[in-house]
Amino acid sequence: MAEEHKTLADLKEMMEAPKPEVAEVAETPAAEDAGAVPQGVAPEGEEIVLVEPKIDGRGRSYATGKRKNAIARIWIKPGPGTITVNGRELETYFARPVLRMVINQPFAVTDREGQYDVFCTVKGGGLSGQAGAVRHGISKALTLYEPGLRGALKSEGFLTRDSRVVERKKYGRKKARRSFQFSKR
Questions:
Q1: Given this model, what pLDDT does residue 28 score?
Q2: Which residues are within 8 A (CB) of 24 and not within 5 positions of it... i.e. 6 or more apart?
Q3: In the prediction, which pLDDT does 84 show?
Q4: How many Å apart are CA 123 and CA 68, to the nearest integer?
Q5: Beta strand segments in 13-170, E
Q6: How many angstroms separate the Cα of 58 from the Cα of each of 5, 13, 61, 78, 115?
Q7: Could you report the average pLDDT of every consecutive run of 10 residues in the chain (185 residues)?
Q8: Going edge to edge, which strands form the sheet with 88-89?
């Protein structure tokens, strides 16, 4: 925090100084339709910040996903698309097709189906909460492996942790809100 304090005159000089040229990249028709700014070209007054992928020595990205009381630890790496949950195949651990669909949603949104192997351990909660935790973790791990996918996953809401949890029981009540039965006599 050893920055110099700038005066108003210094700031005006910085604003009037010539800006460095940014390399132009040929626009694609898809980028025009989406209204996106092409890579390499920053909107007026903004800098381009390139996010480095976070990959460990084994070529994997790690993330933690959570939902309700379930916590999932996710490792992804390029591969044929096998998903292993607690040492078992996806089809045997999550037998319901709806839960398997929930887990594969991040890959479907980003068009990466069958391109990444997923190894995960999940504990706590029930099967539905565990499937949501795995989806959250896969989304976070994908953004760490390929930072360019963050926008697509964020717009679908896959990077937001679903914070709804079971309400705690209060004293003087039978459950969280249910009261004991009232008796008039």
A1: 47
A2: 38, 40, 41
A3: 97
A4: 11
A5: 61-67, 70-78, 83-85, 88-89, 116-123
A6: 45, 49, 9, 11, 17
A7: 60 65 52 50 65 90 96 96 96 96 95 95 96 96 94 94 94 95 90
A8: 61-67, 70-78, 116-123, 83-85, 88-89
